[in-house]
Amino acid sequence: MTEPARRWYHWFSPRDSPEERKLILKLDLLIVPYAFILYWVKYMDQTNINNAYVSGMADELGFHGNELVQFQTIFVVGNVVGLLPFIYLFPRVPMHILVPTLDLGWGLFTLLQYRAQSYGEIMAYRFMVSLFEASYFPGVHFVLGSWYRSDEIGRRGGTFYIGLTLGTLTASLLQAAATTYLDGVHGLRGWRWLFIINAIITLPLAFIGYFIWPGTPAKPNRLVMKKSELELARSRLEKTGSSVKSTPFSLNLLKRVFTNWRFYLLVLWDVFFFNTSSNSAAFLLWIKSLGRYSTAEVNKLNAISPGLGIFFVLFINFSADLWIGRPAAITLASAVNFTGLVILAVWNVPEAAKWFAFSTSYSAVAVSSVLYGWANVILKNNIEERALTLILMTAIATSTNAWIPLFVYPTVEAPRFPKGYVYSAVMVVCLVVTTQVVRVLLGTQGEKRQPKSQDSSVAEGTSTSVDGSYDRKTSSPRIEAV
Protein backbone atom coordinates (compact mmCIF):
# COMPACT_ATOMS: atom_id res chain seq x y z
CA MET A 1 0.00 0.00 0.00
CA THR A 2 1.33 3.43 -0.95
CA GLU A 3 1.58 6.08 1.75
CA PRO A 4 -0.41 9.23 0.79
CA ALA A 5 1.51 12.48 0.48
CA ARG A 6 2.44 13.85 3.86
CA ARG A 7 3.73 17.27 4.81
CA TRP A 8 6.47 17.70 7.41
CA TYR A 9 4.09 19.50 9.77
CA HIS A 10 1.38 16.80 9.72
CA TRP A 11 1.15 15.23 13.17
CA PHE A 12 -0.94 12.26 12.01
CA SER A 13 -0.52 10.00 9.01
CA PRO A 14 -3.19 10.45 6.30
CA ARG A 15 -3.94 6.74 6.71
CA ASP A 16 -4.86 7.05 10.39
CA SER A 17 -8.57 6.54 11.02
CA PRO A 18 -10.52 8.96 13.25
CA GLU A 19 -10.42 6.35 16.03
CA GLU A 20 -6.66 5.98 15.67
CA ARG A 21 -6.18 9.73 15.80
CA LYS A 22 -8.17 9.93 19.03
CA LEU A 23 -6.07 7.14 20.49
CA ILE A 24 -2.78 8.72 19.39
CA LEU A 25 -3.81 12.09 20.81
CA LYS A 26 -4.79 10.49 24.13
CA LEU A 27 -1.47 8.63 24.31
CA ASP A 28 0.37 11.84 23.46
CA LEU A 29 -1.34 13.64 26.34
CA LEU A 30 -0.73 10.81 28.82
CA ILE A 31 2.82 9.83 27.88
CA VAL A 32 4.69 12.77 26.42
CA PRO A 33 4.00 15.59 28.94
CA TYR A 34 4.65 13.36 31.96
CA ALA A 35 7.77 11.82 30.40
CA PHE A 36 9.03 15.28 29.51
CA ILE A 37 8.35 16.80 32.95
CA LEU A 38 9.90 13.87 34.81
CA TYR A 39 12.97 13.93 32.56
CA TRP A 40 13.26 17.67 33.19
CA VAL A 41 13.24 16.98 36.93
CA LYS A 42 15.59 14.01 36.56
CA TYR A 43 18.14 16.11 34.75
CA MET A 44 17.87 18.90 37.30
CA ASP A 45 18.56 16.29 39.97
CA GLN A 46 21.46 14.93 37.93
CA THR A 47 23.24 18.14 36.88
CA ASN A 48 22.65 20.18 40.04
CA ILE A 49 25.97 18.87 41.36
CA ASN A 50 27.80 20.92 38.70
CA ASN A 51 26.02 24.13 39.70
CA ALA A 52 26.43 23.43 43.41
CA TYR A 53 30.15 22.73 42.95
CA VAL A 54 30.89 26.15 41.40
CA SER A 55 28.42 27.94 43.70
CA GLY A 56 30.02 27.38 47.08
CA MET A 57 30.14 23.62 47.68
CA ALA A 58 33.81 23.28 46.70
CA ASP A 59 34.86 26.15 48.96
CA GLU A 60 32.66 25.19 51.93
CA LEU A 61 33.67 21.52 51.92
CA GLY A 62 37.29 22.04 50.90
CA PHE A 63 37.35 20.44 47.44
CA HIS A 64 40.34 21.38 45.28
CA GLY A 65 41.13 18.36 43.10
CA ASN A 66 39.16 15.96 40.89
CA GLU A 67 36.17 15.69 43.21
CA LEU A 68 33.69 16.95 40.61
CA VAL A 69 34.59 14.36 37.98
CA GLN A 70 34.52 11.72 40.75
CA PHE A 71 30.98 12.79 41.71
CA GLN A 72 30.04 12.43 38.04
CA THR A 73 31.74 9.05 37.86
CA ILE A 74 29.98 7.57 40.90
CA PHE A 75 26.71 8.71 39.35
CA VAL A 76 27.54 6.71 36.22
CA VAL A 77 28.44 3.67 38.33
CA GLY A 78 25.04 3.87 40.04
CA ASN A 79 23.37 4.13 36.64
CA VAL A 80 25.03 0.96 35.38
CA VAL A 81 24.30 -1.05 38.54
CA GLY A 82 20.73 0.24 38.68
CA LEU A 83 19.97 -0.72 35.08
CA LEU A 84 20.68 -4.44 35.23
CA PRO A 85 17.59 -5.66 37.19
CA PHE A 86 15.29 -4.06 34.64
CA ILE A 87 16.30 -6.52 31.93
CA TYR A 88 13.87 -8.81 33.72
CA LEU A 89 11.49 -6.23 35.24
CA PHE A 90 10.53 -4.08 32.22
CA PRO A 91 8.29 -6.68 30.52
CA ARG A 92 6.88 -7.95 33.82
CA VAL A 93 6.23 -5.07 36.20
CA PRO A 94 3.64 -2.51 35.06
CA MET A 95 5.46 0.64 34.00
CA HIS A 96 2.83 2.86 35.64
CA ILE A 97 3.90 1.32 38.97
CA LEU A 98 7.61 1.03 38.33
CA VAL A 99 8.42 4.54 37.07
CA PRO A 100 6.65 6.58 39.82
CA THR A 101 8.09 4.34 42.56
CA LEU A 102 11.62 4.92 41.31
CA ASP A 103 10.87 8.65 41.15
CA LEU A 104 10.08 8.60 44.86
CA GLY A 105 13.47 7.07 45.56
CA TRP A 106 15.53 9.55 43.60
CA GLY A 107 13.54 12.47 44.99
CA LEU A 108 14.29 11.39 48.56
CA PHE A 109 18.05 11.09 48.00
CA THR A 110 18.10 14.37 46.08
CA LEU A 111 16.71 16.02 49.22
CA LEU A 112 19.27 14.38 51.51
CA GLN A 113 22.16 15.98 49.61
CA TYR A 114 21.37 19.34 51.21
CA ARG A 115 22.76 18.09 54.53
CA ALA A 116 26.06 16.72 53.17
CA GLN A 117 29.16 17.63 55.18
CA SER A 118 31.85 15.55 53.49
CA TYR A 119 33.12 14.08 50.24
CA GLY A 120 32.06 10.56 51.26
CA GLU A 121 28.53 11.63 52.11
CA ILE A 122 28.02 13.31 48.75
CA MET A 123 29.43 10.25 46.96
CA ALA A 124 26.91 8.01 48.76
CA TYR A 125 23.95 10.27 47.97
CA ARG A 126 24.97 10.64 44.31
CA PHE A 127 25.19 6.86 43.98
CA MET A 128 21.68 6.39 45.40
CA VAL A 129 20.14 9.13 43.25
CA SER A 130 21.63 7.52 40.15
CA LEU A 131 20.56 4.03 41.24
CA PHE A 132 16.91 5.10 41.28
CA GLU A 133 17.19 7.25 38.15
CA ALA A 134 19.01 4.61 36.10
CA SER A 135 16.12 2.93 34.30
CA TYR A 136 14.08 6.03 33.51
CA PHE A 137 15.58 6.86 30.11
CA PRO A 138 15.41 3.34 28.58
CA GLY A 139 12.09 2.86 30.37
CA VAL A 140 10.49 5.77 28.55
CA HIS A 141 11.83 4.49 25.23
CA PHE A 142 10.47 1.04 26.08
CA VAL A 143 7.03 2.59 26.65
CA LEU A 144 7.23 4.70 23.47
CA GLY A 145 8.20 1.63 21.45
CA SER A 146 5.27 -0.25 22.99
CA TRP A 147 2.63 2.22 21.75
CA TYR A 148 3.92 4.06 18.66
CA ARG A 149 4.74 3.11 15.07
CA SER A 150 8.15 3.75 13.55
CA ASP A 151 7.00 6.96 11.82
CA GLU A 152 5.62 8.34 15.12
CA ILE A 153 8.27 7.51 17.71
CA GLY A 154 10.93 10.09 16.83
CA ARG A 155 8.84 13.20 17.44
CA ARG A 156 7.54 11.88 20.75
CA GLY A 157 11.03 10.86 21.80
CA GLY A 158 12.38 14.26 20.82
CA THR A 159 9.70 16.13 22.75
CA PHE A 160 10.37 13.98 25.82
CA TYR A 161 14.11 14.56 25.43
CA ILE A 162 13.72 18.33 25.70
CA GLY A 163 13.49 17.58 29.41
CA LEU A 164 17.26 17.00 29.41
CA THR A 165 18.10 20.41 28.00
CA LEU A 166 15.43 22.18 30.04
CA GLY A 167 16.58 20.40 33.20
CA THR A 168 20.15 21.61 32.73
CA LEU A 169 18.94 25.11 31.90
CA THR A 170 16.61 25.21 34.90
CA ALA A 171 19.27 23.90 37.28
CA SER A 172 21.50 26.81 36.27
CA LEU A 173 18.74 29.39 36.72
CA LEU A 174 17.55 27.85 40.01
CA GLN A 175 21.09 27.90 41.37
CA ALA A 176 21.45 31.54 40.33
CA ALA A 177 18.20 32.36 42.16
CA ALA A 178 19.19 30.30 45.22
CA THR A 179 22.56 32.05 45.40
CA THR A 180 20.96 35.48 45.04
CA TYR A 181 17.91 35.13 47.29
CA LEU A 182 18.37 32.14 49.63
CA ASP A 183 22.07 32.14 50.49
CA GLY A 184 22.23 32.20 54.30
CA VAL A 185 18.48 31.72 54.89
CA HIS A 186 18.01 29.48 57.96
CA GLY A 187 21.78 29.13 58.05
CA LEU A 188 22.01 27.27 54.73
CA ARG A 189 24.21 28.22 51.79
CA GLY A 190 22.58 28.72 48.40
CA TRP A 191 23.93 25.46 46.97
CA ARG A 192 22.17 23.50 49.73
CA TRP A 193 18.87 25.20 48.93
CA LEU A 194 19.16 23.97 45.34
CA PHE A 195 18.84 20.34 46.46
CA ILE A 196 15.84 21.18 48.66
CA ILE A 197 14.06 22.99 45.82
CA ASN A 198 14.76 20.13 43.40
CA ALA A 199 13.28 17.59 45.82
CA ILE A 200 10.15 19.71 46.38
CA ILE A 201 9.59 19.63 42.61
CA THR A 202 10.44 15.93 42.21
CA LEU A 203 8.44 14.14 44.89
CA PRO A 204 4.85 15.19 44.01
CA LEU A 205 5.34 14.06 40.41
CA ALA A 206 5.82 10.48 41.56
CA PHE A 207 2.29 10.30 42.96
CA ILE A 208 0.79 11.80 39.80
CA GLY A 209 2.44 9.07 37.72
CA TYR A 210 0.47 6.28 39.37
CA PHE A 211 -2.72 7.76 37.92
CA ILE A 212 -1.76 9.04 34.44
CA TRP A 213 1.12 6.90 33.12
CA PRO A 214 -0.58 4.39 30.75
CA GLY A 215 1.85 1.48 31.15
CA THR A 216 2.18 -0.67 28.01
CA PRO A 217 -0.37 -2.56 25.87
CA ALA A 218 0.82 -5.80 27.51
CA LYS A 219 0.48 -4.40 31.07
CA PRO A 220 -1.74 -1.32 30.84
CA ASN A 221 -2.99 1.12 33.45
CA ARG A 222 -6.70 0.39 33.25
CA LEU A 223 -7.51 3.55 35.20
CA VAL A 224 -6.83 5.52 32.02
CA MET A 225 -6.98 3.00 29.15
CA LYS A 226 -10.26 1.46 27.95
CA LYS A 227 -10.52 -2.08 26.59
CA SER A 228 -11.46 -0.81 23.11
CA GLU A 229 -8.44 1.52 23.10
CA LEU A 230 -6.12 -1.32 24.05
CA GLU A 231 -7.51 -3.53 21.29
CA LEU A 232 -6.99 -0.75 18.73
CA ALA A 233 -3.47 -0.05 20.00
CA ARG A 234 -2.51 -3.71 19.71
CA SER A 235 -4.07 -4.03 16.28
CA ARG A 236 -2.26 -1.06 14.76
CA LEU A 237 1.09 -2.26 16.09
CA GLU A 238 0.60 -5.84 14.92
CA LYS A 239 0.05 -4.50 11.40
CA THR A 240 3.61 -3.16 11.45
CA GLY A 241 5.10 -6.42 12.72
CA SER A 242 5.50 -5.27 16.32
CA SER A 243 5.04 -7.81 19.10
CA VAL A 244 2.54 -6.81 21.79
CA LYS A 245 2.62 -10.02 23.84
CA SER A 246 5.22 -11.06 26.38
CA THR A 247 6.99 -14.42 26.27
CA PRO A 248 8.77 -16.11 29.19
CA PHE A 249 12.28 -14.90 29.98
CA SER A 250 14.51 -17.85 29.09
CA LEU A 251 18.00 -19.01 28.26
CA ASN A 252 16.86 -19.22 24.65
CA LEU A 253 16.28 -15.47 24.71
CA LEU A 254 19.79 -14.85 26.01
CA LYS A 255 21.22 -17.21 23.42
CA ARG A 256 19.28 -15.54 20.62
CA VAL A 257 20.47 -12.08 21.65
CA PHE A 258 24.09 -12.83 22.49
CA THR A 259 24.75 -14.97 19.39
CA ASN A 260 23.35 -12.32 17.06
CA TRP A 261 25.81 -9.76 15.66
CA ARG A 262 22.99 -7.20 15.64
CA PHE A 263 23.22 -6.86 19.43
CA TYR A 264 26.93 -6.04 19.33
CA LEU A 265 26.48 -3.55 16.51
CA LEU A 266 23.76 -1.70 18.43
CA VAL A 267 25.87 -1.65 21.61
CA LEU A 268 28.92 -0.32 19.76
CA TRP A 269 26.74 2.32 18.10
CA ASP A 270 25.45 3.49 21.48
CA VAL A 271 28.94 3.50 23.02
CA PHE A 272 30.11 5.89 20.31
CA PHE A 273 27.07 8.12 20.91
CA PHE A 274 27.62 8.27 24.67
CA ASN A 275 31.18 9.48 24.13
CA THR A 276 30.50 12.29 21.64
CA SER A 277 29.70 14.88 24.32
CA SER A 278 32.20 17.11 26.05
CA ASN A 279 32.31 17.23 29.86
CA SER A 280 28.93 18.39 31.19
CA ALA A 281 30.56 21.00 33.43
CA ALA A 282 33.05 22.32 30.83
CA PHE A 283 31.02 25.40 29.89
CA LEU A 284 30.46 26.32 33.55
CA LEU A 285 34.12 25.91 34.40
CA TRP A 286 35.23 27.96 31.38
CA ILE A 287 32.86 30.84 32.16
CA LYS A 288 34.08 30.83 35.77
CA SER A 289 37.71 30.82 34.60
CA LEU A 290 37.15 34.11 32.74
CA GLY A 291 36.99 35.78 36.15
CA ARG A 292 34.62 38.56 35.16
CA TYR A 293 31.23 37.16 36.20
CA SER A 294 29.60 36.71 39.61
CA THR A 295 28.44 33.27 40.73
CA ALA A 296 24.84 34.08 39.79
CA GLU A 297 25.93 35.36 36.36
CA VAL A 298 28.01 32.22 35.74
CA ASN A 299 24.95 30.04 36.34
CA LYS A 300 22.74 32.23 34.14
CA LEU A 301 25.21 32.18 31.23
CA ASN A 302 25.47 28.40 31.50
CA ALA A 303 21.79 28.27 30.50
CA ILE A 304 22.68 29.37 26.94
CA SER A 305 23.81 25.91 25.84
CA PRO A 306 20.78 23.89 27.03
CA GLY A 307 18.50 26.69 25.82
CA LEU A 308 19.81 26.24 22.28
CA GLY A 309 19.68 22.50 22.89
CA ILE A 310 15.87 22.66 22.92
CA PHE A 311 15.97 23.83 19.30
CA PHE A 312 18.52 21.18 18.31
CA VAL A 313 16.52 18.35 19.88
CA LEU A 314 13.22 19.36 18.27
CA PHE A 315 14.71 20.07 14.86
CA ILE A 316 16.73 16.86 14.65
CA ASN A 317 13.95 14.57 15.91
CA PHE A 318 11.15 16.07 13.82
CA SER A 319 13.46 16.01 10.80
CA ALA A 320 14.20 12.33 11.41
CA ASP A 321 10.49 11.43 11.39
CA LEU A 322 9.15 13.71 8.69
CA TRP A 323 11.86 15.19 6.51
CA ILE A 324 15.38 13.80 6.02
CA GLY A 325 15.21 10.45 7.83
CA ARG A 326 17.16 9.02 10.74
CA PRO A 327 20.63 8.56 9.17
CA ALA A 328 20.76 12.09 7.78
CA ALA A 329 19.43 13.59 11.03
CA ILE A 330 22.18 11.92 13.06
CA THR A 331 24.80 13.04 10.54
CA LEU A 332 23.56 16.65 10.57
CA ALA A 333 23.63 16.93 14.37
CA SER A 334 27.03 15.27 14.45
CA ALA A 335 28.45 17.79 11.97
CA VAL A 336 27.48 20.68 14.25
CA ASN A 337 28.92 18.89 17.29
CA PHE A 338 32.15 18.02 15.45
CA THR A 339 32.67 21.66 14.46
CA GLY A 340 32.43 22.80 18.07
CA LEU A 341 34.74 20.06 19.32
CA VAL A 342 37.41 20.94 16.75
CA ILE A 343 37.28 24.58 17.87
CA LEU A 344 37.72 23.55 21.51
CA ALA A 345 40.49 21.10 20.64
CA VAL A 346 42.43 23.88 18.89
CA TRP A 347 41.60 26.21 21.83
CA ASN A 348 43.79 29.14 20.74
CA VAL A 349 40.95 30.79 18.85
CA PRO A 350 38.98 34.03 19.33
CA GLU A 351 36.78 34.00 22.42
CA ALA A 352 33.68 34.32 20.22
CA ALA A 353 34.52 30.96 18.62
CA LYS A 354 34.62 29.33 22.06
CA TRP A 355 31.24 30.82 22.93
CA PHE A 356 29.90 29.28 19.70
CA ALA A 357 31.48 25.89 20.42
CA PHE A 358 30.19 25.64 23.98
CA SER A 359 26.77 27.03 23.06
CA THR A 360 26.19 24.38 20.37
CA SER A 361 27.41 21.45 22.47
CA TYR A 362 23.89 20.09 22.94
CA SER A 363 23.81 19.13 19.28
CA ALA A 364 25.58 16.00 20.57
CA VAL A 365 22.64 14.81 22.68
CA ALA A 366 20.02 15.80 20.09
CA VAL A 367 20.45 12.46 18.32
CA SER A 368 19.62 10.38 21.41
CA SER A 369 15.93 9.84 20.73
CA VAL A 370 16.63 9.30 17.04
CA LEU A 371 19.08 6.53 17.86
CA TYR A 372 16.92 4.89 20.54
CA GLY A 373 13.78 5.28 18.46
CA TRP A 374 15.56 3.57 15.58
CA ALA A 375 16.72 0.76 17.90
CA ASN A 376 13.11 0.32 19.09
CA VAL A 377 12.00 -0.17 15.50
CA ILE A 378 14.79 -2.64 14.74
CA LEU A 379 13.84 -4.65 17.85
CA LYS A 380 10.06 -4.42 17.43
CA ASN A 381 9.42 -8.15 16.91
CA ASN A 382 9.94 -9.31 20.50
CA ILE A 383 9.22 -7.46 23.75
CA GLU A 384 11.75 -9.33 25.89
CA GLU A 385 14.52 -8.98 23.33
CA ARG A 386 13.76 -5.28 23.02
CA ALA A 387 13.89 -4.77 26.79
CA LEU A 388 17.10 -6.78 27.15
CA THR A 389 18.87 -5.01 24.31
CA LEU A 390 17.77 -1.48 25.24
CA ILE A 391 18.89 -1.99 28.84
CA LEU A 392 22.25 -3.50 27.92
CA MET A 393 22.88 -0.89 25.24
CA THR A 394 22.35 1.81 27.84
CA ALA A 395 24.25 0.03 30.62
CA ILE A 396 27.33 -0.77 28.55
CA ALA A 397 27.46 2.65 26.91
CA THR A 398 26.91 4.38 30.25
CA SER A 399 29.64 2.31 31.88
CA THR A 400 32.22 3.87 29.57
CA ASN A 401 31.39 7.22 31.14
CA ALA A 402 32.40 5.82 34.53
CA TRP A 403 36.11 5.64 33.70
CA ILE A 404 36.92 7.37 30.40
CA PRO A 405 36.26 10.92 31.73
CA LEU A 406 38.77 10.30 34.52
CA PHE A 407 41.47 10.13 31.85
CA VAL A 408 40.26 12.55 29.18
CA TYR A 409 38.27 15.09 31.23
CA PRO A 410 40.07 15.38 34.63
CA THR A 411 38.84 18.40 36.59
CA VAL A 412 42.41 19.64 37.09
CA GLU A 413 42.69 20.24 33.32
CA ALA A 414 39.52 22.35 33.19
CA PRO A 415 38.48 24.17 31.17
CA ARG A 416 41.10 23.30 28.52
CA PHE A 417 40.70 19.49 28.48
CA PRO A 418 43.29 18.95 25.70
CA LYS A 419 42.67 15.21 25.48
CA GLY A 420 38.92 15.31 26.01
CA TYR A 421 37.79 17.38 23.05
CA VAL A 422 39.96 15.41 20.61
CA TYR A 423 38.62 12.13 21.99
CA SER A 424 34.99 13.27 21.66
CA ALA A 425 35.60 14.47 18.09
CA VAL A 426 36.95 11.03 17.14
CA MET A 427 33.85 9.44 18.69
CA VAL A 428 31.64 11.68 16.52
CA VAL A 429 33.31 10.32 13.38
CA CYS A 430 32.86 6.76 14.65
CA LEU A 431 29.17 7.45 15.37
CA VAL A 432 28.50 8.72 11.84
CA VAL A 433 30.29 5.77 10.24
CA THR A 434 28.46 3.24 12.43
CA THR A 435 25.13 4.93 11.65
CA GLN A 436 25.68 4.17 7.97
CA VAL A 437 26.61 0.58 8.80
CA VAL A 438 23.36 0.22 10.77
CA ARG A 439 21.42 1.72 7.86
CA VAL A 440 22.90 -0.73 5.37
CA LEU A 441 22.74 -3.87 7.51
CA LEU A 442 19.57 -3.33 9.57
CA GLY A 443 17.57 -0.73 7.64
CA THR A 444 15.66 2.24 8.96
CA GLN A 445 12.33 0.48 9.55
CA GLY A 446 13.63 -2.82 10.93
CA GLU A 447 12.91 -4.40 7.58
CA LYS A 448 16.25 -6.11 6.99
CA ARG A 449 16.50 -9.85 7.62
CA GLN A 450 18.60 -10.91 10.57
CA PRO A 451 21.51 -13.34 10.59
CA LYS A 452 21.07 -17.02 11.27
CA SER A 453 20.18 -18.08 14.78
CA GLN A 454 20.08 -21.53 16.36
CA ASP A 455 16.95 -20.56 18.25
CA SER A 456 13.73 -20.56 16.29
CA SER A 457 11.41 -19.51 19.08
CA VAL A 458 9.95 -16.04 18.81
CA ALA A 459 7.20 -14.04 20.37
CA GLU A 460 3.64 -15.07 19.82
CA GLY A 461 2.13 -13.28 16.88
CA THR A 462 5.30 -13.14 14.77
CA SER A 463 6.46 -15.47 12.05
CA THR A 464 9.93 -16.74 11.38
CA SER A 465 11.90 -17.78 8.39
CA VAL A 466 13.77 -21.07 8.25
CA ASP A 467 16.87 -19.41 9.68
CA GLY A 468 15.02 -18.33 12.80
CA SER A 469 14.98 -14.63 11.93
CA TYR A 470 11.91 -12.45 12.05
CA ASP A 471 10.34 -12.19 8.61
CA ARG A 472 6.96 -10.54 8.99
CA LYS A 473 5.88 -8.39 6.07
CA THR A 474 5.11 -4.91 7.23
CA SER A 475 2.53 -2.48 5.92
CA SER A 476 3.97 0.48 7.82
CA PRO A 477 4.67 3.56 5.68
CA ARG A 478 8.27 4.00 4.63
CA ILE A 479 8.75 7.74 4.84
CA GLU A 480 12.45 7.88 5.55
CA ALA A 481 15.13 9.06 3.21
CA VAL A 482 18.07 6.72 3.27
TrEMBL record:
Region (Disordered): 447-482
Keyword annotations of the record: Membrane, Transmembrane, Transmembrane helix, Transport
GO cellular component, one term: membrane
Compartments in which it is found: Membrane
Sequence intervals crossing the membrane: 23-41, 69-90, 97-116, 122-148, 160-181, 193-213, 263-287, 307-324, 329-349, 355-375, 387-409, 421-442
Biased composition (Polar residues): 453-467
Pfam entry (one): MFS_1
Highest taxon above the source species: Eukaryota
Family membership noted in the UniProt record: Belongs to the major facilitator superfamily. Allantoate permease family.
Name used for this protein in its record: Major facilitator superfamily transporter
